[in-house]
Amino acid sequence: MKILIINTGIHEKNKQGLVKMLEYLHRSNTNNTNNSNIQEIEYKIGTGTIADIQNYDIIYNPSKEINTSLYPNKKFIFGPHFSTFPNNHQLQSLQNNKYKNSIYIQPSEWVVQLWKNMGAEQFLPIKSFPFPVNTEKFTHAPDPAHAPATIKNNVLVYYKHRSPQEFNQLKDFLIKQNINFRLFDYRQRYNETDYLAYLQTCKYGILLDAHESQGFAVEEALSCNVPLLVWNTQTMNQEHGSSYHPIPCTSIPYWDNSKCGEYFHHISELPYAFQTFQNKLNNNQYNPRQYILDNLSTEKCAERFVTMINSI
């Protein structure tokens, strides 16, 4: 099975995860582990010329349409980078009403439902497909009992696209609790190496974020086994400075309260959520890394990918 990844408008984290996943499938088939229905995996990252398309079985184009009627014997995967909301002109140009050889992916189920509710599925089947988290890079620190220097006492606050007023409310609450924290502000384009290094020292994190279709920074914290207290968003118009309508959304599309942490929606709920979070932290009740391994690892996403392409 030859797969072409068109390197135009693709999120770097998505590309890294996709390549890692395809390399895993290639190794698995080479080692005869029989973990997929694909006999061989070969992939290329290219520009999507006609010659390229003709030489590959599956074409993944993250951000631009291709007239699939020209290639009825190929399989096409599009998305998720066309637009935030469905663009009917773009989707109609895929000609999928005639040739059922393509799908459009979104990284999580709430975005899939948003597109379906806006009528996009009449043009193109839409599937939920998350990209793998790099669990080898974003891993937990050694056990403090064996490496005392890595004892986790620090707290981080991850802040992205929410109002300054909400951030100040959160900061005031933490000050009253005598909690010192380090701020990672998405707008300031923090260094990923610093983020990873600090995660190794964190007892927990606090998230104040707008909508996320997947939320790599959130998942990377969880992969480092850092439980999170999340001031969750509810509608798209909570993104600070946006002109979105109040369409339902979430900051944490991949989440399990029993493993990942706690979330709340209104500032009035913060004291109770914080106390619940602290109690469970003290009893070591969370295991966020296990949630990521069970749901968003390279292996799990590879299983989803094989199922998805077999459905086209």
Structure summarized in a few sentences:
By secondary structure, this protein is an alpha/beta fold. The chain has helices at 12-30, 50-54, 88-92, 109-117, 164-176, 192-199, 216-223, 257-260, 270-282, 288-295, 298-310, and strands at residues 2-6, 42-46, 58-61, 75-78, 102-106, 126-128, 154-160, 182-185, 202-209, 228-231, 261-264.
Can you characterise this structure?
With 312 residues, the protein is α/β, with parallel strands linked by helices. It has two domains: 2-132 and 297-310, 3-Layer(aba) Sandwich (Rossmann fold); 148-295, 3-Layer(aba) Sandwich (Rossmann fold), CATH 3.40.50. It contains eleven helices and eleven strands. Strands 2-1-3-4-5-6 form a six-stranded parallel sheet. Strands 8-7-9-10-11 form a five-stranded parallel sheet, sandwiched between helices. Strand 10, helix 8 (257-260) and strand 11 (261-264) form a beta-alpha-beta unit. Helix 1 crosses helix 11 (298-310). 37% of the residues are buried. The model has no long low-confidence stretch (mean pLDDT 91).
